[in-house]
Amino acid sequence: MDVNNLKELYAEVDKRMKGLVEHARRELSGVRTGRASVAILDSVHVDAYGALVPLNQVASLSVPEPMLIAAQPFDPSLSGAIEKAIQAANLGLNPNNDGKMIRIPIPPLTDERREELSKVVHKLAEESRNGVRQVRRDANDRLKKMLKSKNISEDEERRALEHVQKLTNDHVKSIDDVQEKKDDELLNR
Fold first, then answer.
1. End position of a domain, from candidates 105, 122, 155
2. In 3-state terms, what secondary structure has residue 125?
3. Considering the entire predicted model, what is its pTM?
């Protein structure tokens, strides 16, 4: 983080924190809630053409029914590889492959499984909150260096530390909101 003034520092901190909130959103969208959603397959990568490729780049994904995801491979010869990749992803899904279309039924979640997934949601959210706090630590260290090298006054440093803390609080609140929404989906369905 090489910045020359406070505005650049704030912009950099805000950008990094927003990235962490977005990462939390993506991670949590992949946690299954008992309803079919193509987002739960975001982590699936298929061994195709000698490389690991995201599932959505080798197949068209759709949700024809509330408890079913359909994957239509662009290249039918990849059906087996897609089926294996879904099973290997440890999502608790058992795809049915008819050669042309892969149907992925979404089993209903048991109360026990909902509790396990809730713990996963909390762990992912906490990792993102820790990332936001790390950005704050980096910014605070940078502010102390700016003060030491006489680039800013003590008053400016104090105001800047307060501003960085406000950014931190706002972004942690965003992560909390995303976590709460996901928990609600998981536990109250």
1. 105
2. helix
3. 0.67
